[in-house]
């Protein structure tokens, strides 16, 4: 992705993910913490807790379950925190006060370099199992994807700013690349972020269309347009197929159909005609 405009660091609200994590994993409690840039992480969000003993607890990298997950950059779990031998026990007092035994911790990394950990825990000793671990990992990866999309949206909004220092030609290419990238990301993000992505896609199209209010003279299906957007970035049929999760034959078929609608003889002419008609930015 272009790096002409720095990524804007946004405040991260862990609450929706911690809430979703507790529901998905079916555990007694879920929690999340963020590093402050130093050697420690602060637990900022808890759901299902009985006290505030863990709230704002500082966890140093390498210590306890979360600190170990953070240091190793991989999920860590224990069947019984109180007796676990593979972790340090710097935080036994607040963990025991909350009555937590079985626990899993999964680290995450954000585009601006911020790191943190999501936790899920039960108040009885037990093997959490692959099902629980997979669900914790799924929520953590969703957090990372949403944060990546949010950062990219802010970057692209900066590109749309009239005061952008980018050369007009470079700016247009940035917007075309952004349009293609955001179309790929759109289906992978939560609904709230999808609305922001759709709004940005509309802004990009309007910014580069000679008459955005005019109805399109040619109507392409969603998949035909998806393929054409990726072709416009210079991707081959094989690359488009990989990006969109299609077979190469299906990709070629969509491109041929779009080309016929656009009265184009080849892929370059298809892209040019689509841009002239305002179908592509």
UniProtKB/TrEMBL annotation:
Domain HTH luxR-type: 213-278
Keyword check for Cytoplasm: no
UniProt-listed SUPFAM superfamilies: C-terminal effector domain of the bipartite response regulators, GAF domain-like
PROSITE patterns membership: HTH_LUXR_2
Pfam family, one: GerE
Keywords: DNA-binding, Transcription, Transcription regulation
Entry superkingdom: Bacteria
InterPro entries in the record: GAF-like_dom_sf, Sig_transdc_resp-reg_C-effctor, Tscrpt_reg_LuxR_C, WH-like_DNA-bd_sf
Name of this chain's protein: HTH luxR-type domain-containing protein
Native source species: Sporichthya brevicatena
Lineage, opening ranks: Bacteria, Bacillati, Actinomycetota, Actinomycetes, Sporichthyales
């Amino acid at each position: 992705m272009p790096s002409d405009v720095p990524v804007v660091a946004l405040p991260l609200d862990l609450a929706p993910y911690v809430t979703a994590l507790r529901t998905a994993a079916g555990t007694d409690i879920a929690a999340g913490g963020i590093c402050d840039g130093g050697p420690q992480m602060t637990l900022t969000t808890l759901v299902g807790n009985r006290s505030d003993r863990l709230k704002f607890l500082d966890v140093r990298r390498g210590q306890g379950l979360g600190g170990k997950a953070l240091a190793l950059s991989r999920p860590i779990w224990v069947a019984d925190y109180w007796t676990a031998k593979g972790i340090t026990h710097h935080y036994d007092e607040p963990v025991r006060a909350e009555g937590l035994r079985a626990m899993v911790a999964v680290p995450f990394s954000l585009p601006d370099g911020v790191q943190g950990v999501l936790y899920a825990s039960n108040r009885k000793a037990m093997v959490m199992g692959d099902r629980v671990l997979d669900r914790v990992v799924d929520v953590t990866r969703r957090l990372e994807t949403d944060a990546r999309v949010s950062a990219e949206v802010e970057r692209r909004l900066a590109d749309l700013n009239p005061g952008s220092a980018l050369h007009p030609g470079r700016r247009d290419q940035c917007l075309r690349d952004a349009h293609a990238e955001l179309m790929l990301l759109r289906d992978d993000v939560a609904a709230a972020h999808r609305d922001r992505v759709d709004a940005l896609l509309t802004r990009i199209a309007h910014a580069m269309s000679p008459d955005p209010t005019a109805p399109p003279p040619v109507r392409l299906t969603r998949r035909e347009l998806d393929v054409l957007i990726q072709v416009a970035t210079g991707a081959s049929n094989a690359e488009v197929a990989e990006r969109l999760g299609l077979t190469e034959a299906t990709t070629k078929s969509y491109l041929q159909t779009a080309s016929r609608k656009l009265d184009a003889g080849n892929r370059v002419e298809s892209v040019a005609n689509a841009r002239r008609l305002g179908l592509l930015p």
